[in-house]
Amino acid sequence: MRKQSLLKELHSALARKYRKHAAVVETSWQSFSANE
């Protein structure tokens, strides 16, 4: 069974996606907090 490698692939895919969107999320969160 190749469950371990599948989990590893899934994790790296999520990590790539997060790194890609992290800056956008951070910026919009800061502007949202400033409006409070």
Spans of at least 5 consecutive residues with low confidence: none
Q: In total, how many domains does the architecture comprise?
A: 1
Radius of gyration based on Cα positions: 15 Å
Mean pLDDT equals 85
Cα separation of the termini = 51 Å
> Total strand count, please?
0
Counting helices, strands and paired strands, the structural category is mainly alpha
Number of helices: 1
Note the beta-strand portion: under 5%
Largest sheet: none
Shape: rod-shaped
Order of helices and strands: H
Helix content estimate? over 70%
Characteristics of this structure?
36 residues, 92% helix, 1 helix, single chain
What does this structure look like?
This protein is mainly α and 36 residues long. The chain has one domain (1-29). The chain contains 1 helix and no strands. The protein has one helix spanning 3-35. The protein is rod-shaped and about 50 Å long. The termini are far apart.
